[in-house]
Amino acid sequence: MSALPRTSWIAPVVTRLRTTNPYVVDTALAALVLFAASLQWLFPDEGDDRLTWQGWLLGAATAVPLIWRRRFPYTSAWAVSLATPAMAVYHAPPPDVLYGGLVVLYTMAARGLVRQRRTMLVGWLLGSVLTMLYKEHSEPFEYAFHVTGTICAYGLGMLARVQRAYTGEVENRARRLERERAAETARAIAQERARIARDMHDILAHAVSLMVVQAEAGPVVVRSDPARAEAAFDAIAASGRDAMAQLRRILGVLKEEERRNGTARLPQPDLAGLPALIRQVAASADLRVDLSVTGEPRRLSPDIEVAAYRAVQEALTNTVKHAYASCAQVELHWGGDELTLTVTDDGRGPAHSPGGHGLIGLRERAAACGGTAETGPGPDGGFRVVVRLPAGADREAAVG
Length: 400
Known about the structure:
- It comes from Streptomyces lincolnensis.
- This protein is α+β, with helices and mostly antiparallel strands.
- It has 14 helices and 5 strands.
- Among the domains are: 136 residues, no CATH class; 115 residues, Histidine kinase-like ATPase, C-terminal domain (Heat Shock Protein 90), CATH 3.30.565.
- 66% of the residues lie in helices and 9% in strands.
- It has a 5-stranded mixed beta sheet with strand order 1-2-3-5-4.
- The protein is rod-shaped, with a radius of gyration of 43 Å.
- The two termini are 54 Å apart.
């Protein structure tokens, strides 16, 4: 644990170097290489090596091209590669350590093309060995030192190349995942908006249809039957309140109020609410609605329950708005793995269905649950809506 504070400065330094102007970094690197190459000229060893300004300039030629090592890597590599043996041949003084060559090999391994970096590696290995063999008369350990240094510099460059490629791939993957996440979020938002639009249509169309029917009937009986007129206006008010409550639940308008008051939102409608819906329609629209259930009822998933309720609601709304019917029949048949909802009326028949958004939304809602919806004339006239929804264990396969 105590080593962490001493090394915590490394990451900021590396980050700063990566974000600094490349020419500034490479100029500093070239100056450092020139300084290292000048040490043997400033502090010569005892021996017969001649020390001249021409030799120092050749040493500078092995460092200055490094300023452009990233912009023109192959060109700067050749410049250093030619200046280094020239310095060794001139022998005033000869290069003890190939500082520029090590940087060149690292740069070519990290940034050069395959042919370029292999050419440089082979050239520097052969050049070092031949120079030491025919000019320097080096000891065996010097061969190992230069060859090992050359290979290590090249290996470090290859590691940098691999690390840069890995980092780039990780960044590309992160960007792809971010784009996919954004697309998935957009799709989820679009689906949620479509669901809210369907629910709002179901609620408003149903409530407004009942209110219109009652509003039209109220003035007719206001003088002859005041009690019936009062009941009509009460039905209008009840339908409006119910529609407002459902709209608040869908749009989340009461979120903050619920949080302050500690109240919960109303649950989504389900099949248990069908009797109440039928009573409301019968009372509000002066329409006789009968409900029959066959088969063995069982528990369904919440989305199937909502789809079934909305299907009956939309069918009855369509009957109230367009059919001019006197009675309607709602049938629920529980099959082995399917729930069939059938709503028929004795109204005008297929002419009263304009093919609007209500029936289209009904089909979409059924299809989203893995079911089907059919509309058309009834067997004895009037209009019929048949919705089949999965109610068995293979519901996931039906949806898929």
